[in-house]
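I am writing to request your help with a piece of structural work I have in hand. I am sending you one protein, given as its amino acid sequence and as whole-number tokens for its backbone shapes. Kindly check, if you would, that the fold set down in the tokens agrees with what the sequence suggests. You will find the record immediately after this paragraph:
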Amino acid sequence: MALTGGMFLSGHTTPRLGIDLAGGTSITLKAKADQGSAINKANMDTAVDIMNRRVNGLGVSEAEVQTQGTDNIIVNIPKGTNSKEAQEQVGTTAKLYFRPVLASEPSGGAAQSPSPSASPSGGSSSKPSTSPSSSASSPQKASSSGSSTGSASPSATATSQGRAVTDALKADSTPSPSASSSGSGKPSATPSATPSGGTNADSKLQAQYAALDCSKATDRANAGKNAKPGESTVACGEIDKAWYKYLLGPAAVDGTEVKKAQAVFDTQGAAGWQVQMTFTGSGAKKFADITGELAKNQPPQNEFGIVLDGEVVSSPYVSSAITGGQAEISGSFKQEEAQSLANMLSYGALPLSFQEQSVTTVTAALGGEQLHAGLLAGAIGLALVVIYLVVYYRGLSIVAMASLVVSAILTYVIMSLLGPAIGFALNLPAVCGAIVAIGITADSFIVYFERIRDEIREGRTLRPAVERAWPRARRTILVSDFVSFLAAAVLFIVTVGKVQGFAFTLGLTTLLDVVVVFLFTKPLMTLLARRKFFANGHKWSGLDPKGLGAKPPLRRTRRPAGPAAGPVDPKEA
């Protein structure tokens, strides 16, 4: 009743259909060999695997990812899935770098806004110090934070931009400038010495930084384009709906050294949804080293930029080295945004970059006719089972049919709720799994009924027969369902795509079979055993002692006294 009420309250009263039954979105991606990797079968297969895990990262969404030709990948997303989010994830390279901030300032007339701070997540690291200003960041972007509040946002100063940038480049990733504060804004770097000539590369980068206007989409797209991890670069970042430009040093930590990332909700504080990262052994050491160096500097050169696909998603400051190999990224995330970022970081970068060729809405691949055929097959199978139960078990078939109806209702309700919950989509293989489950469920009833009939053949009346038969039937049912569930679980783990739908449905209905038999079938049999129609063994009850060839009723006899008494038959009541 609770599940049914939840289904109606949620408004999801029908299962979500897969792309083979209801259509959806088809995305065509073309591979480009611009990341130093060749377009070959191995790299394409790796890309398909990563994309498949990305779009199915939240559950059984039944998205299909497959190659077409030598350099194309087709992604089919069922109707009802967040196709826009999936579209963004499948072709994203998700290259993550942690770069020291050499200089930063608002771009395009950005207003002041808070900047986050960095903190460890667990481990033995010290907590960063807290600045007097409020902690916040863009709802759309991440910030690395913990229990501390952030410093104020970047603001422009009256100092010469060229001098500040030149000195920052001279100091590379460990500058030691003095700082000047303007109002509540974050201090900008001011030179501790007069500018001196630098290399041509430094002069070119300085010119790029000076000319960069992050409020323009074209500038953002070209900022730091094709920059190598070991080189300084420029980048843009959005904080609180305002754009900032950054001059960043060489990458100190690579995203591939993030061992695990997961989205969690901060129940202890006000940080909301966060992405918790755990670094590998080498990554943890590098992260501790860079945060230790940055902690010695003055703002803004005590910050590191978290650069995802060339865009600064956060630039938290560091007040002490963060050790322990764990850190958090937070910043007023919505749940979907935190999970999306964690998903991409967990599954790594694609070996190739991809260009979106087309996005089209497709109709059902098999359509209503195939669904109708599948449902018809299920109805025929169910009818045959019912006919067998009626002919062989007669009155007991009422118990079996009532249990099948309860199992079907539970399956339908749970499938309807799993659609919005984990992205489950009902496709034809899933329908086949539900049809197979009819036999598994009926088998459990047959085991119990046969145990009861065996007890009646031994001469017992129905009420004790029902209770004595249950322990042995229960063990058999549990073993049988465990084997079926284990097979479904293995199939789900080692396969992808539509076959997973079959395995998932088979496993779900097997679990529901246990629930129905224990909580519905057994109590119902206990109640019916008190009815005269069944208790007296009516001819049409399916429990007629004469029809079953029962022995004479067992009677309690007085045990002979003394040593002459022989062994007692354990079957006697």
